[in-house]
From TrEMBL:
GO terms for molecular function: ATP binding; homoserine kinase activity. InterPro entries: GHMP_kinase_C_dom (IPR013750), GHMP_kinase_C_sf (IPR036554), GHMP_kinase_N_dom (IPR006204), GHMP_knse_ATP-bd_CS (IPR006203), Homoserine_kinase (IPR000870), Ribosomal_Su5_D2-typ_SF (IPR020568), Ribsml_uS5_D2-typ_fold_subgr (IPR014721). It comes from Tremella mesenterica. Belongs to the GHMP kinase family. Homoserine kinase subfamily. Residues 306-375 form the GHMP kinase C-terminal domain. Coiled coil: none annotated. This is Homoserine kinase.
């Protein structure tokens, strides 16, 4: 009998104005990966060395039961190199957004490459004949955390296929090796309104986290299965332990996220490339003051729209990204709680180009006003009214 699992990962919005690379909120849009594992009694162990690799650290959180279903147990099967069996790597099918353009090779697709990184670092590779059906509702390259969700899905997939039982903290460590800003991945993994920071890893600890090139973490894996051998898994950069740290704030249910999504994409790498290496002290203070106020203002009832509106302003990333997003300056200055009752604050969602408006009512009016500005710039946009997802990522056996 095959086993079927579903991996659920939410979208996320990051920064929320002044909290650049700090704040994230997971959203009610989902990336769903359905994993079909053939009769596990026929699946060989993929490496005899896997049991010697420590697979987890202790978790600071209680993991919901649904996050760690009983994974298939390969351990009693004989150790076999897949290249010597009737092996075929995972097959991928996609439905939903970007389903016609996303790579379907398991060695090129972001979700499966990340899962292979997790497996590889445990001296494992894909078990044979896995089927993956991916349904994507998160638009690519719009600032709604599509890559963060794909990375988390990949870590959860690797954990499932390797029967690793990684702790939630260790899963985050793996995700942070791939996406080095913690805001989207932490919100996608944990769920809710999240503040996070990365531990500074000094080189004399044996590894400088920031300096490991992504190409070494996610190498171009060859398109064949002859990749298990004596050295398989020996030179994989392992994540330092406990690099991501987070807090989860209360979220008031009356606050909804109005997201206005332009039709064009802005790659996060490009939107980070326009940022300066150094900032003026006054701009840093501007953000710190607002961020400190924003967290309490957003989590305290009754809400104070004027306070929140000012506290959602930013001088660390949005001013530099205006050149990439036509209409951004006007959008950020022309709507306010006075002109649009119900509006709490407005900012770029993640690296953009999506606009995030936090609001308690008048959602469609707020969205239409933002779309009007985009329209003047010749940009078509859609909108959605989203809720916070408080559950985060989870895996179920169906
Ligand atoms: N479901 C997915 N499957 C495979 N690849 C994906 C998936 N989602 C995202 N990606 C990859 O990530 C890229 C988008 O990443 P990018 O960081 O530029 O934008 P984003 O994550 O949507 O925005 P932001 O980080 O600002 O929220 C896509 O072009 C694709 O290569
Ligand atoms: N904090 C990140 C989020 C995008 O992934 C940025 O703004 O670049």
């Amino acid at each position: 009998m095959s086993k079927i699992y579903k991996i659920h990962v939410p979208a996320s919005t990051a920064n929320i104005g002044p909290g650049f690379d700090v704040c994230g909120i997971s959203l009610s849009l989902e990336l769903l990966v359905t994993v079909t594992i053939p009769d596990t009694s026929l699946i060989p162990t993929l490496s005899s060395t896997s049991s010697s690799i420590p697979s987890s650290t202790s978790s600071p959180l209680t993991i919901p039961a649904s996050t760690n279903p009983s994974s298939p147990d390969y351990s009693s099967s004989p150790s076999t190199n897949p290249s010597s069996t009737n092996y075929s790597p995972p097959t991928l099918t996609y439905t939903g957004l970007s389903s016609t353009t996303v790579p379907l090779s398991p060695y090129k697709n972001l979700i499966t490459r990340v899962s292979l990184y997790v497996l590889h670092s445990h001296h494992l590779t894909f078990p044979p004949n896995i089927k993956l059906n991916i349904h994507n509702s998160i638009p690519f390259g719009r600032g709604l955390g599509s890559s963060g969700a794909a990375v988390i899905a990949g870590v959860l997939l690797g954990d499932l296929l390797g029967n690793l039982n990684l702790s939630i903290q260790r899963k985050l460590d793996y995700a942070l090796m791939v996406e080095r800003h913690p805001d989207n991945v932490t919100a996608a993994l944990i769920g809710g309104f999240i503040g996070s920071y990365l531990k500074e890893i000094k080189s004399d600890d044996g590894m400088d986290f920031k300096e490991i090139p992504l190409a070494e973490v996610l190498p171009e894996y060859p398109e064949n299965v002859e990749i298990l051998g004596e050295d398989w898994g020996k030179n994989v950069p392992l994540p330092p332990k406990n690099i991501g740290n987070w807090v989860k704030w209360n979220w008031l249910k009356e606050i909804k996220m109005v997201v206005v999504i332009p039709e064009f994409q802005v790659a996060t790498a490009k939107a980070r490339g326009v940022l300066p290496d150094k900032y003026d002290r006054k701009d840093v203070i501007f953000n710190l003051q607002r961020l400190a106020v924003l967290i309490t203002a957003l989590t305290t009832s009754p809400l104070n729209p004027e306070l929140i509106y000012e506290a959602m302003k930013d001088k660390l990333h949005q001013p530099y990204r205006m050149a990439l997003i036509p209409g951004l300056t006007e959008i950020l200055t022309s709507l306010s709680p006075t002109t649009h009752p119900g509006l709490l604050g407005i900012c770029l969602s993640g690296a953009g180009p999506t606009i995030l408006a936090l609001a308690t009512h008048n959602f469609d009016l707020i969205a239409e006003s933002i779309k009007e500005v985009f329209k003047k710039e010749g940009v078509k946009a859609d909108h959605e009214v989203l809720s916070v997802d408080t559950r985060g990522s989870w895996v179920e056996e169906v």
